[in-house]
Structures are given as structure tokens and as C-alpha cells.
Design a protein that fits this description.
- By secondary structure, the chain is of the alpha/beta class.
- Helix content is 31%, strand content 30%.
- The protein contains 9 helices and 14 strands.
- It has a 6-stranded mixed sheet, sandwiched between helices. A 4-stranded antiparallel sheet has the order 2-1-4-5. A two-stranded antiparallel sheet has the order 11-12.
- Helix 4 crosses helix 5 (139-152).
- It is globular, with a radius of gyration of 19 Å.
Amino acid sequence: MLELQNLAAGYRNGPVVSGVSLQFAPGKILVLAGPNGCGKSTLLRTALGLQPKLDGGVLLDGQALENLSPRQIAQKAAFVPQSRAVPRITAGRLVLHGRFPYLSYPRRYGKKDHETAWRALEWAGAADLAERPLMELSGGQRQRVYLAMALAQDTETILMDEPTAFLDIQHQMELMALARRLADAGKAVVMVLHDLCLAMKWADRIALLYGGRLLDCGAPEDLYARGCLEEAFGVSLGRVDAAGGPYYYYQPLTIRGGTEERL
């Protein structure tokens, strides 16, 4: 399990967000939410040691992150970045790269590696793309392949930075359903999402970043009741109780007399 202890993340000119203490619990979907520039992606990268922390600590399965090698970290936690380079290989070959943390040099894939990679492609809904060059895929298709590569790492924790960014509505819902399946299988799933309504529907907990700090963290319905979402985003959410659970939507705004007012 990943645990952030009073963590400060940012750059040489200072922290973007500080004093963050969070646990990425197995079996749960945790969404990092907040307005643009609040430090969501920076915090996620710092939690995995992809950029240096400014203060505080990170524990991975009870061990300080700085005491673990990159290979040891990659065997415990996988990361799906918001964007990355597109190599000139097939999608199936890229997914096999997820097995690198378990291979010695020179890398030779075994039966288990191929089976794990194929299973990951199926889980991500990308099995039909295995033989296609990555360069020929759409942004949404590539996103599914990169997710499959992370699944092929076979880790207990999966961190995703804006995984729905290039997906249409159908594939957004499929990806969130996959995140639910992964959490139900016992994995800790951590996601940066900009779509607040999507987060409210699928997250077990939302960590709300605002003003350089962790403003609140809790179940979606608790954050809604406390009104902190309106404080952070400057919008109001409406709620409708339905048979499948509550449905959240953005309250419409109109312009009156030069100022914004809710309808």
C-alpha cells in the first residue's frame, strides 16, 4: 500500500501542494480532484518517485520509497501517465514492456509474460489491437493499450493520470467499469480526473486538492454534503437519487447584469 505522510510536491521554486497525508487503500478507487494547477499530477508523480519530493515521506508497503530501487517500485505500483512518446512497435509488443520489472538482461519473455500481457489486453478491451502498429492507433486506442501495459505489470497499486482524457463517453464508462473491477479484485486504484461528475459516480473516496493543500477527503456523498466541492471548483452540483445510486450533475449558470448567477 502507498501512504503519503505530510508530503510536499512541486519544483525548485517551491511546492505546488504540501502537507498531504493519504493512504491508497487496496480494494478502493481514490480520485484526486481539484481545479487546474492544484498539483494533482505532480502529487501522483512524486508518490511514485518520478520526481523528487520537497518534504514529508512516502511509504510503499511500509518501506520508505527512497530505500527501494526503481525495479522494486515498478513491481509494486504501475503508472499510466497522461501522455507519452509513441514508439514504432505493435500494441502487443508495447504491452509486453509491462513485464520489464520481472526480467533480467537481456530480456527474454517467457510463457507467463505472454499470458499476462494477453490477459491485460483483454481486460483493457484492447485485444483486437495487439497486432496493429501503435502509430496507427487513435488517441483513445493508445490509451487503452498503455493501460494494458500497466496491467501487465501485475501490481497491487495502479495510478492513472487523466486516463479518460482521449476517450469518448462510451470508452470512459468502460474504463471506469474496469477500474471498479480492479478495485473489486483487491487492487488500489488511484486516478486523476477532471470530470467531477464521473468522479462522484465511481470513486469510493475523493481527495480534493485546492489552494496548495488537501482541502478534504472522503466519500463523494460526504464531500457533496459539506459543500467543499463548490468552494474548490466554483460550481454547484445537483443530485438526483436513482435506483442505481445518486446521480450528480452541474447546475446551469446564466449571465445576468454582468455577473454569473445560478438558474
